[in-house]
Amino acid sequence: MPQFSASDAKWMALAIQLARKGRFSTTPNPMVGCVIVSADGVLLGKGYHQKAGQGHAEVNALIDAGFTPHRGAASSAQQSSEPPPTDGSTVYVTLEPCSHTGRTPPCANALIEAKVGRVVIASIDTNPLVKNRGVAMLREAGIIVETGLMDTLATDMNVAFNYRMQHHLPWVCVKLACSLDGRTALENGKSKWITSSESRLDVQQERASACAILSGADTIIADDPQLNVREAELQETTKTRFSKRQKQPLRVIIDGKNRLNSRYNLFNDGQEVLVFNTEHNPQLKEANCQQIQLNKKGDFVDLKEVMNNLAALQINRIWTEAGPSLCGALFEQGLVNEFVLYQAPMLLGNKAKGTINIHSLTELDDAIALESLEITQLGNDLKRRFRVKS
Ligand code: AOF
Ligand code: ZN
């Protein structure tokens, strides 16, 4: 493990901060930030990846430093007359520079062209097209490459992207809002707004960070929700304009018994919806949605197949807002990676509805174990984030 200095840590922390600016827009790509510093410690350029198909973080930072990469003959002329402004500089990048030609040319080549002297990388790219190849290309060109500075932070930031790359499955987060006695709604179905306005604004950020929002027919029938990101609400808390993102998260609805029809709100707002069922639903003829038929497993559409389909659509992070049956089935089938609980300080009593129906547990040893990651106070509510232990 290389020894990193305090100034290395300072620059990488800046690169991580920059990377996070892309959190609502990079999907299906990872978040990446990059900072370029001269040999005598002056900041030359910085950049981050904003959107798939647009410049990668390194290219944006090089341009900010006054060097335009990937210009072929023009670029050689630029380099032969005088050294590039990035000659001998150190590059701090949160993800291994790419080695492949995807939507854009390889960043490793851009850094070689720019004659940088040293590249410090936080985490290695889990994309099999890149993994360790970016490092090898840079080293072959004589550039000093050091890896692992703030690796955990950088890896966690892209946990959903990494999971899809490694397991060919999306990273599934289940959200629940409940009372102190673990209830979501009264027996008569009244559940709107048991949590504070702060929690509801926080949900907007979570939705905006997701590639897809998953729900079931039960929830659509009970609440007729829109399950979208409301730009004004997001802006209120993050000061980030959501419209910079190409599109809203894909709404994904499980309707195993074809109970939905085209009159529900989410089929009429012009944004994308994908419905998974087991037989084509003619009642959705007028709805703005795509239907995919899958096999049945128990009472449900086969949820593993749902996830396989979503991974094939390059969905990294799924935010689930669903009722107790779908949430329970996801847990029972081992498809949940993360759990976010908003808990409001009230008691709703025994007749109120529960949160997660899990039928299969009889022994304590079989309990689903969660690791607590974070506790935040939002108004009067507590938000808790857990990771499911694998
Ligand atoms: C980098 N810097 O800023 C990003 C990287 O299709 P493309 O060209 O956008 O490439 C996407 C892949 O490139 C993505 O899956 C990941 O492996 C890497 N992302 N790499 O050097 C960046 N966003
Ligand atoms: Zn790249």
TrEMBL record:
Enzyme Commission number: 3.5.4.26, 1.1.1.193
This protein's record includes keyword Protein biosynthesis: no
Needed cofactors: Zn(2+)
Pathway where it operates: Cofactor biosynthesis; riboflavin biosynthesis; 5-amino-6-(D-ribitylamino)uracil from GTP: step 3/4; Cofactor biosynthesis; riboflavin biosynthesis; 5-amino-6-(D-ribitylamino)uracil from GTP: step 2/4
SUPFAM superfamilies: Cytidine deaminase-like, Dihydrofolate reductase-like
Domain CMP/dCMP-type deaminase, residue spans: 6-146
Residue numbers annotated as active site: 58
Binding site for NADP(+): 177, 193, 219, 223, 323-329
Top-rank taxon: Bacteria
The UniProt record lists the keyword Metal-binding: yes
Annotated residues for binding of substrate: 191, 207, 227, 230, 321
Any one GO biological process: riboflavin biosynthetic process
Catalytic reaction annotation: 5-amino-6-(5-phospho-D-ribitylamino)uracil + NADP(+) = 5-amino-6-(5-phospho-D-ribosylamino)uracil + NADPH + H(+); 2,5-diamino-6-hydroxy-4-(5-phosphoribosylamino)-pyrimidine + H2O + H(+) = 5-amino-6-(5-phospho-D-ribosylamino)uracil + NH4(+)
Molecular function terms from GO: 5-amino-6-(5-phosphoribosylamino)uracil reductase activity; diaminohydroxyphosphoribosylaminopyrimidine deaminase activity; metal ion binding; NADP binding
Xref: InterPro entries: CMP_dCMP_dom (IPR002125), Cytidine_deaminase-like (IPR016193), DHFR-like_dom_sf (IPR024072), Eubact_RibD (IPR004794), RibD_C (IPR011549), RibDG_C (IPR002734), Riboflavin_Biosynth_HTPR (IPR050765)
Binding site for Zn(2+): 56, 98, 107
Keywords: Hydrolase, Metal-binding, Multifunctional enzyme, NADP, Oxidoreductase, Riboflavin biosynthesis, Zinc
Record text on cofactor binding: Binds 1 zinc ion.
Family, as annotated: In the N-terminal section; belongs to the cytidine and deoxycytidylate deaminase family. In the C-terminal section; belongs to the HTP reductase family.
Function comment: Converts 2,5-diamino-6-(ribosylamino)-4(3h)-pyrimidinone 5'-phosphate into 5-amino-6-(ribosylamino)-2,4(1h,3h)-pyrimidinedione 5'-phosphate.
Record NCBIfam families: eubact_ribD, ribD_Cterm
Protein name: Riboflavin biosynthesis protein RibD
